[in-house]
Automatic annotation (TrEMBL):
Swiss-Prot/TrEMBL keywords: Cell outer membrane, Membrane, Signal
Domain of life: Bacteria
Domain Outer membrane lipoprotein BamD-like: 36-223
InterPro entries attached to this UniProt entry: BamD (IPR017689), BamD-like (IPR039565), TPR-like_helical_dom_sf (IPR011990)
Organism ancestry: Bacteria, Pseudomonadati, Bacteroidota, Flavobacteriia, Flavobacteriales
UniProt entry tagged with the keyword Oxidoreductase: no
Short name of any one Pfam family annotated for the protein: YfiO
Protein name: Outer membrane protein assembly factor BamD
UniProt entry tagged with the keyword Lyase: no
Length: 274
């Protein structure tokens, strides 16, 4: 009985594969549509990507013929969603966006706006790489929130915006810190200054203020003599800015900042005496 059952499963499998191959070669689009829809629904029911991938091959063949037809909206949505569900986010982002433009009155348009944005969110790279897709995702997610303030996906979209915004912050911060670590102190000061202006509420603000001060301090004490007084005074202003926000905290940078400030005071007093 077990052997008969295995043979039956294999036979049915070969039969369905043969039918699929036959429909792929069909010239008529109607059988392709019916099978693609059936495979798409099987994918939804089982969660198995192989059904979606087979459906996508058929959708690719029939999409142009359904453009402008009543079923075109259904075909376009199923194709875009199949790509989304198998994790082909580069393409699903584009296809969902195209769907919203082609069928702006569709009942699926809100979902498509969100999934287009989410697709770009999914392909957003780590902070150390180029953030073009991150900015695209942010723009699309913000558009969704502005368009659907009471939308089904509002909370999810807002959470994604927060996460991506923190990634952009980290990108800006690491660029400034890299200038600091490579002893390009003028560039570091400018970059940390830009960072604190652009992201005033950042969790990295403490570090940014300290490293801006440290960059200014090191730049000052290593400058030619006639530039030292001016640069020490500038560094002291950055110290005061750091202390304004973190002087009464348990900042890990507090003792080092005070040490630098004492040295600035000693150097300044020495110059005055001279």
């Amino acid at each position: 009985m077990k052997r008969l059952l295995v043979l039956l499963i294999i036979t049915v499998g070969f039969s369905s594969c043969g039918e699929y191959q036959k429909v792929l070669k069909e010239k008529e689009i109607s059988p392709k549509y019916e099978m693609a829809k059936q495979l798409y629904e099987q994918g939804l029911e089982t969660g198995k990507n192989r059904y979606f991938r087979k459906a996508i091959r058929l959708f690719d063949q029939i999409l142009p013929q359904y453009k402008g037809k009543p079923a075109g909206e259904t075909v376009s949505y199923m194709n875009a969603n199949a790509h989304y569900l198998v994790g082909d986010y580069f393409l699903s982002g584009y296809l969902m966006e195209r769907f919203t433009k082609s069928y702006p009155n569709s009942e699926k348009v809100e979902e498509a706006f969100f999934k287009s944005a989410e697709s770009f969110y999914k392909v957003s790279p780590v902070y150390s790489k180029d953030q073009e897709d991150t900015y695209k995702a942010l723009n699309k997610l913000q558009f969704y929130i502005n368009t659907y303030p009471d939308g089904e996906y509002f909370i999810a979209a807002n959470d994604m915006i927060q996460e991506l915004s923190q990634k952009i912050e980290r990108k800006f911060y690491e660029i400034a810190k890299q200038y600091h670590h490579t002893e390009r102190y003028k560039a570091a000061i400018q970059s940390f200054d830009n960072f604190t202006l652009k992201f005033p509420g950042s969790k990295l603000r403490e570090q940014a203020l300290f490293y801006k001060f440290e960059s200014a301090y090191i730049l000052a004490i290593n400058s030619v003599s006639y530039l030292v007084p001016e640069r020490l005074a500038e560094a002291l202003l950055y110290y005061e800015d750091f202390m304004k926000y973190y002087g009464d905290t348990e900042s890990e940078f507090l003792e080092q900042a005070k040490t630098y400030a004492q040295d600035i005071e000693q150097r300044t007093n020495t110059q005055i005496e001279l």
